[in-house]
């Protein structure tokens, strides 16, 4: 007996024959195997399928497993016969047999006239395959036509759509004819070979494979039918039957029979997955390839979304599979085509409303309710949790206690911004004073105030100063209550005047906590972006029912909620489509805690009133209603922007969280954004009608619901372009990074230059440098996108001409976004995305064996190295990067500046004791312009980091530095702000410096930390004025100019430093700062990075002002003297983002998404202008810390939980123990995570989020902790990860919500 075998290692093999004599001598088998391998290597075969006795495998999935010669794989000997005969219907004439409702004889006659011959099958199906069972599925005419999209509801169908519909109808007709031909051929083959059941499964497979190799897909399918018929009739199986399904799938795809191909692909995946339990190495390859078969079958059926998912799943397992990358691009294009024609939209059903009527009274769960069985999919429960239940139920008490402690220690820092919010505090204090006077003067009674969420006590002191008899301060958070008591005592208020109670607002009792009924209730600080999610209504309701007289004054007295349909999308970035990231626009809480970038919010409708709450009679029931959204412009509706207007007191004092002229007015009261379930396209073919003004108008119903502790907005029965993915682990700072246009453009230019240099240079074996290529030659460029994120930098490299790009990303959702972005831009042939810890990447797996020769990376935070950047670079150099590789960026320089950041007096009250909550051992990312401060010293360089191996030998490993900072202002230096310059290459750098400071620490403005010249005055020159003599704000004027005018003004300083004629006078190019040079200043100017003539700042400012005057004259002439200026009160659309200034020469205030790092000193000191102060800088692993010289300065106050010992020399502080308890809870959580027997933490977090208002949790802190824990689950759920996969890197704070 002969058996068909194949040879080869990990690649394609060559079939050869093994006789019975060979089986007895294994050495002969080995010789034939080697000979077959040599023969195959010299051949060019693209589509080979093989068979052998004992195994059914593809040629590129070889395993040597020779079956005994005496028996076949089904357990029967080859000499043993088995009876089998055709069915009666198979042997009879075809007359009278119907197929899909048609007479088979008529179909065959039509086939002979129209259909191509059997051997003229479609082109090779190398990229897809599926198999079917013995009995072919039946398809009715209606089913066959159901895949053709209907033109109904699409408006006017263009010619392309009509041609496509006609082609699909023709394809459906040909598919019916092919199925009929398959039936006829199958019956003929069964009739010609009536004893085929006597052969083994391997022999039948060999016959089918031979037909398939010959390109006869029809005969191959019929031969596979013999195999499956024998297996079914004899109840036989085979461990590698999935391979036969995979092979037959290719035949179906070649013939265009996509329904059968899809069936076989799914069957192949199921069998292969089962097989992997016993033989993971052998079946894994086929299981991965089955996704390609499934994807191409779905593409053929025009089910592009499902195909996209199939290819994405396959690329997770094999990111380098070109076949699936091509399929992903094809399916992505198909989705876009469908969306453009109004097809392929997705539907999402809302949660059941049976238990949520139009109005339902809110109740609380019973004490014995099993909380682990409660589900909150709709996030608007009608039964709420009580704090007692959360404290005592063993399923959630650890989560609740952790959230409580974390909010305790995070809230004080947030109140620094509350205290500095003059817009908010001025109006609230005014309303309190008016309410107190109203009680005393008009009602003739003492004002007794209940201040709910008192914070540090500012509002309580305002009430006492206005004449209140007594104030009860209720604070839910421990350290805010402690600071409130301390601040009140510091400012001279006694216990007879004020009482501070540390309790939840609903736990307050009369007499025990509140000495007498109150007549003024202040609850302004219970407000957040979502209005209700901090517990405003439960707190006010409890106070009105139990603690107040009849008809008290409530501040605020009423609230009106407005909603507006908006579009928030990520635009094209440097010409790349990165819209795949928009499918992850979701946030668990309305309170994101950071400002909104309103430049990316496009209003699609006028605001409408959603709710109005009278807090004298707060709602006690859930409510739902539908309002019509009137659209005023087309776009993609994916979010609802809502805000509220507060009537603080009798319509005399109002406060709003909305936008004024498209910008936020209060830094602590912001509008909230709720993303819809997906994206809804609002276009002209969706029912627009023109009104009298010529605007396009349409309306859609918006469902508004609330349950007294949370609001929500939904669209019922909507068709979505894409459904969003609610992934709490997704790092939202990537939206801000994509919006950082200047950073992206600088990277793009640097990558383009780096690729061009690598193409023109090649390494030589004698040196580590490069030598030019000869004319016509071009070196290969293989790029590693380290920590690729959304894949932007890798796509830049591919478009610039790189031969291959590998992006490595640990976060699975980010990697999926990167793959979709790559497919959308048609770069799948060059770019591959791997889900892997970058530090564990290996050559030959994630990166080619020779390693990458160009590295692009951006895993830097505000501190530059806080995300293990140096560790990652060193690990890459050891594992996957060539020694002479090019890096973008190639180096970085860190700068520091001393500042004073203290809160002294607010509204004339002393708050110095509150400053102890500022200090932290680690630096925080901030925008310095948002932190009230005074700059005290000039910038100073600290460290230089060189990322290439050659540069790292020039001081990049320095760990300590002693700095002499030159003091320019006298003050109290308690903080160090530091930033960095990223040197992308020799020609370009970008800086994260605060506004007014450029590359190299050069000061452009006097208020940015000293003058550029020691003789320059610290005051700015007179501001330019317009033709009417009115002073012009330079920053606002530049923002209103076009890009060309702004660039001319920005280049004024460069011209001044280059000589009168603008020639290259006094310029010395330099890659890095090499020390001070007399008369020169190191900066990035018009000629690149280097030393320029140090012209006094006043001269540059004068040239800048001159050009602004000229630009003002041009603007006036264009406007015309007789044309009145636009009315500033007229409503207009939000301003669009203006073009950035030239990165090389601009003195701009636009900042990068990194922000600056601010570290508060452990010892602070008073400094005097004109002197110097010594600062010590130390790099500890991935942290940079600063301190004053030993013995200088005084110790600053610290938060209670930062003090380890207290109450005696040997007694640990209870505040420290509370925080340490949180660390123990995290360790316990990680231990439970490894055993995989507990539900994910997301279940508990969703419960906390749904009941945040009734539990009085802070939604912003809850969202932060939620994100941190799901990221912990993600990292620790991976099979292996390195120290570089830190929680800080994945939970990086976002400084602006874009």
UniProtKB/TrEMBL annotation:
SMART domains: TPR
Positions with biased composition (Acidic residues): 157-167
Keywords: S-adenosyl-L-methionine
UniProt xrefs under SUPFAM superfamilies: S-adenosyl-L-methionine-dependent methyltransferases, TPR-like
Pfam family, one: PrmA
Stretches with biased composition (Low complexity): 1126-1141
CDD domains, per database record: AdoMet_MTases
InterPro entries: Arg_MeTrfase (IPR025799), SAM-dependent_MTases_sf (IPR029063), TPR-like_helical_dom_sf (IPR011990), TPR_rpt (IPR019734)
Region (Disordered), start-end ranges: 140-169, 1118-1141
GO molecular function annotation: histone methyltransferase activity; protein-arginine N-methyltransferase activity
The protein's name in its UniProt record: Protein arginine N-methyltransferase
Organism of provenance: Pycnococcus provasolii
Taxonomy of the source species: Eukaryota, Viridiplantae, Chlorophyta, Pseudoscourfieldiophyceae, Pseudoscourfieldiales
